[in-house]
Structures are given as C-alpha cells and as structure tokens.
Amino acid sequence: MAVTVEAVGLTKVYGGGRTPAVDHVDLATEEGEYLVLLGPSGCGKTTLLRMIAGLEQPTEGEVRIGGEVVNGLPPRARRIAMVFQSYALYPHKTVRQNIEFPLKAEKQPTAKRRERAEWAAELLGLSALLDRRPRQLSGGERQRVALARALVREPSVFLLDEPLSNLDAKLRATARDDLKDFHERVGTTTIYVTHDQVEAMGMGDRIVVMLDGQVRQVGPPQAVYEGPADTFVATFLGSPPMNLVPREGTIVGFRPEKALPAEVLGAALDGHRRWTLDVQRIEYLSGDRHLHGVATGLGEQAPVIVRLPATVLTPIETGTKHEFVVRDDDLCWFDPETEKAIDGPAG
Amino acid sequence: MARLADREGVLARLMLLPAIVYILALVAVPFVVAIAYSFSDVTAGDPSYDWVGLENYRSNWEDPVFGRALWNTFLFTGVTMLLTVVLANILATLLTADFHGKWVVRFLVLLPWTTPAALGAIAWLFMLDSLLSPIDWILWQVGLLEDGRHMVWLGKSGLAKASVIGVQVWRLVPLAAVIIMAGQTAIPDDIKDAAAVDGAGFWRRLWEVTIPLTLPVIAVAVLFGAIITFTDMSLVRVLTNGGPVNQTHVLASWAYVKGIDGGNLAQGAAVAVFLLPLLLAATIAILRAVRRWEVT
User: Is B193 within 8 Å of A81 when comparing Cβ atoms?
Assistant: First the structure.
C-alpha cells in the first residue's frame, strides 16, 4: 500500500550551530512516487531523510507519513525501511539472518520469517547466497541484500541514502535499472537521496534540488532541467552546466547543447538569436565537441561552452570566430540580485 | 669511516640493548631460576642445589592447601571475569550514551584502575573491617542487618572469598569497560541506525548487534583480566593473607607463603611454575578464538 510522506516547515539545527542543516523544508510526495533529493554534499538532503526515518529529531516542523504526524515516534513505529550508503549489513549474520532480522524484531513466527525471507531473496536474485556472510559478497550483491532486508516486511515507505555510490560505474548503471524496475513492481513510495544528477534525472518521478538546507526547486526532471528556478539549479544540473551571460540588468542563460552554428540553420533564423563565439579550446568527449570560448553579441562578453552533437559536422578551428544561434524559447532569464528566474523580455 | 649514527645495523642493536637486558635480567633469569629451583631442595637456609626431580610437585599435589589454592585460583578468576564482563558491558553502554559531564564520569570510573593494587586493597581492608566496616553500617541503616551485629567479611570462608572477588571486580571493571567502550564506539553508526530502522528495540540491539560485534574486544578484555586475576598475589596477601585458616589462598599467594615466608624456595617455585602451563593454554585458546571471530 502506497502512502504519502510530508515535511512541513521541517528544520534541523545541530547543537550549538547557528546555521540550520535543514531550513524550513515543505515537501510532499505523491502516493507511490519516486522522489529524488538532489544536491551537493552538505546540502542537508541526508539530514532531511534521517528526520523522515526518525533517526534525527527535528528542531522544528512536522513529519507526516500517511497523513499522520510521526514526530517523536521511533523509527520502528513509522513503517519505513531504509537502505544506507554503506548498506549497513550485520557482518556477523548470514544473508538469510540479515533479511530475517526486521521480521524477528516484529516477533513473526519462524516459519513465516523463512517464507518471507525466501520471497525477498527470490525477488532480488539472492536465493543462492542465503548462507553467505556479507564479507563474502560483491558490492552489488550487498546492495541487493540491503534492499531485500528493507522490503521484507513490506514497508509503506522506502528511504534510500545514496545506495549506488559505493558501486563501480558499470555496476551502478545496471543497479540503477534494477532499482527503477523494482520500484515499478512494488509501487512503494520512495525517497531517494543522491548527489549524482544522472541518477536523479534518470530515476526520479520528480526531483527536489537542495542547497544549504533549503529546497531550491521541485519538479519532474525535464521541467527542472529546462526551466531552472534559479542560477544555482541552472548550473548544478547539466554537464557542462548552463551558460550564464549578463545582459542589460538581467542574466540570460542557455544550455550548451541548445546552441548551433548559424550555417546549420541556413536562412531560417526567425525566433533565433545570433551571436559570435571566439573559440579558444575544443574538447572531444564521447563523440560530442565541447567548444570553450568567449561569446559576444548575447549581452556582455562572457565565457561560454557550446556542446555540438556528433551529428553536426561543421568544421570549427581553435582560435577562430564563429557565428552561432540559440532559439529564443531556449533562453532562460534570471534576476542578478535574487538569482531567481524571471520572465524574459517580450519578443 | 662511516659515522656510528649512519650504521643502522649497529645502531638498532645498540638501542635494543636496554630492552634486552631488562627482559633477560628481570624476566628470563628469574623464570629459568624458578624452573630450576622447582626440581631442587633449595631453601633460604641451605642454598646448595640438589636435584630432587618431581618431588616438590608431588608433595605440593598432596598438600590440601595447595589443592584449595589451585581451586580458588580458578574460582576467583572465573567468577571475577563473569561479573567483570557483565558489569563492564553495562558500564560501557551507559558511558557511550550522551549526557552532560560525561568526561568527568569517565574519569571517575577509571580511578580504581589507576590505584595501585596494594593501596586499593588497603582501602578495602578498612571497608571490610570486622568492627568498623562502613558496609555493615549501611546494612544497619537499611535494616538488612540487625543493629550492632557484624558481618565479619574477612573472617568467614565464604564471605572472605566473596570479598576477594568483589575487590578484584572493582579493580578490573574500569579497564574492561574502557576496552569494551572502544569496541562499541567502533561499530559503524549506520549499523546501529539500520538496527533501529529494522525495528529492533534496546535489548535486541544489545544482544543481536552490539554484543556480537564487540565479542573480539570483550575477549581481549577477558584475556587481560583473567591473566591479571590469575597471577595476582597482592590482593589476597593484603586483604586476607590467605585466611581464615588458608581458606582463601590462590596459587600466587601460596607460593609466596611457602617460598618467601616459609623460606622453602624450591617448594614455592614449584607452586609458581604450576601457573605456567595453565596460563599458556588459556592465552592460546583465547587468542585463537579472537582470530576466528575476526576471520568470519
């Protein structure tokens, strides 16, 4: 059964500290949603998750699970399950004992425990490993044991704290697919913490971008990517990040892949902005060309990066000037004072 | 010519020399002498060495006081370690909790360990005095003992044994608690959090997570404590001097009585050497157990 998780004005100030680790966060998941908390390290995303889990007591504000205020309830009364970055498997217990542990804590009868543990192991392909100990498992297997232990008592909410960050790059890609696939099968509300934008963009139904304990933007990955709420979100998401160019009391931004050489479009320049790039350096990355240089004609002179897809064959040399265009609709506008997104000038 | 400081081989030997002399003079020589004496008839009055084979061991074995001392050594060590492990675990759990003035409490808890054994024993001699014991006074106040009557802690066999064990526990618990505390602190926070999220209450966390994960450290604490208890003679010497009627002697104090007080060096040495194989076996057993836990 899927339930919602809400944070209302949730704040955490650690003893003696003046700056809050989490600062008046309001957030609500949908039922069965896959919500990703994304931000640089130290932004408060893990603290927020730990308050939802009941491992930290909020200084202020409320946590609601399934509409009920759970402040003050210990983790075990919250019907949540958590997967830790380190997996936190019990090293002295076998895989089976690890998976059975939450059921044992619920005082389930032995036969029931066995049956549920075998079901969970089956679901995650661990049946052959039940009698091993964590140290005899690979990173990916440990991660699946942690998941099996989390799901064995069918919690209302899954909390995942950077569960993929200890895996190597190749394994991470498959584990990401497995996790997403798993969520689609069980449909449990999931809150997933990561600092990796690729994980966030690829897995989240919605992503929550955090900085300095505050939520900067909430939305579906594409909406956040294309319409960042402020300059932090604009530059935190995307690789390379959004280009920001000061222009007449505003900041204008565009994604590096939204610029094209003028000749590619030919004469169809309606609704496009034309500018010049003084190309200083070219990087060739996974088939794409990244052009680093200085832009003139968009606003003030400013360093920008243009990412040309492998399908654009226009010859461009280092040290030359080249004409580029960006669609007006692809431009984002920001207020240089507040750094917040604003409406662009009409036309 | 190379300077002395540059010749590492020479320098290393030179710097090891004091340690080697120390170990040879104060450990190896007395050790060999003790073994040699235990097969002889050397006494304080007649130091000439005559080989008598296993005669000293045989006569000790037939001496009822030796038998009782041997039994007491095991009894005191076993009960002391049992109580120490239980109390040290409780203390360590309390001390790892977060509260104000934690470091003051930790400091106070460690004090008994820093007190020399003999000094601590003398303080306890007063606590357990047959007429002036403050413990008796407390028992009067709470009504557990009839006013004016005395427990005579060190005057009855059972109470005297309990007293020796009690003081030994008092002395060892702080060290064991600090060792176990280090072990508990070394458990990753994630594992403690995981147990909390998995729904385990305090007792389940204690029995299924904390204690199994601190077992190797507990074993180390037991190893140290057991060796200290097993070989300690000062506590019995000061507290009861083996009394009443040789009821509380352990091997170490009995060896002292026979060899030094009685002047029969050969017999005393034989009693002391008796400790050796027992200690060796215990050490090997515990160290092997620790290794096995670490591997799994």
Answer: no
